[in-house]
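Exercise: predict the fold of this chain.
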Amino acid sequence: MALSRINTNQIVDGAVATADIADGLITTAKLADNAVTTAKTTDANITTAKLADNAVTTAKVTDGNITTAKVADDAVTQAKIGADAVGTTELANDVDVNTSGTVTATGATIRNSSSTGPALSIGTSSTSVADDGLIGGINFTSGSSNTINGRLFCKQYDTSENSAYFAHELRAPNGNALAEINREYMSQNAHGGVQVRRPNPANIFYYREAWKSVNVSAGQTTNLFKINQNDYYMSVSC
């Protein structure tokens, strides 16, 4: 007698035990879509080996799910940090980052242990900096409103991007504005030069080129220094 197909309605509950099902009999083709629910999956049952590459997409990661504890040391490389991603709000005020990797709130310190110390580069990649334009500088502030009371600038000389001068500015007492007080430069003849100003009441240079050479023959005399007094300042030149 031929056996007809047995449907699920003809099987009494508990009649088929797990021991009666041979290994490999229930294939994936026998499982209906969504038949295996999350409740049927035990903890640790899905291992990383069961996950295909790129199986976990960003859409599957909820906000706040990846904590700092889940990020390995050195996992975030420079290539993973976008341009302008770290702003001033991401940096603590008055931090000290040294070669040991510690951060304190005592100031900014850059040091190394080699025979040549580190250099801090401040500048611009522009090739159109104006004459007397700012290349880089440091502001010195004080008070609750961060008033700039002194500045150290490096400014462009001419527009060829191959020469510069230092300019120092200070704020005089009694509400005066910042004013340039001196410049340090190299002249076109490669002479070191210093210009000092009396900012108030007028911008008057009263000390110019700091060094100059004169060829003197045997028995010849020349005036190396000339002192002029005018108003409240004195100039020395050679």
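Check your answer against the key: The chain is about 0% helix and 25% strand.
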